[in-house]
Amino acid sequence: MKKLKVWARKLKRQLFVLYLAYKDERVPWFAKLFTACVVAYAFSPIDLIPDFIPILGYLDDVILVPLGIMFALKMIPKEVIAECEIKAEEMMKKGKPENWVVGSLIILVWCIISFWMIVKLSQFFT
């Protein structure tokens, strides 16, 4: 159980590193795009495979997120990662970053998708 807690803390720290690296101008645009997707997916309350599905629901969190973090870290310059690791430690002591603008955009996107699906389903059944 202790190893699992250490692994989870390391994963959380790496997400903070990616969150900070995304904002750095030395990171290439394609790395920023991929990093933004990884961080958004990790912090999103909506998963690709819902958690209520036995076993498979948690596999995306255990496999997809760590793989995404690993690939994103490989795309970012080492000096940026080193600087962001120091900042991430400080940030973890203070708590999780709050970004209501991004959260609102995610909710808006999901509302649009839901509305579109309702319209399409109503057209299908009429």
Automatic annotation (TrEMBL):
How is this protein positioned relative to the membrane? Multi-pass membrane protein
> What Pfam families does the annotation carry?
DUF1232
- What domain of life? Bacteria
List the transmembrane segments. Answer: 100-119
Answer whether the UniProt record assigns the keyword Membrane to this protein: yes
List the keywords (alphabetical): Membrane, Transmembrane, Transmembrane helix
Compartments annotated for it: namely: Endomembrane system
Presence of keyword NAD: no
Designated name of the protein: DUF1232 domain-containing protein
Lineage, opening ranks: Bacteria, Bacillati, Bacillota, Bacilli, Bacillales
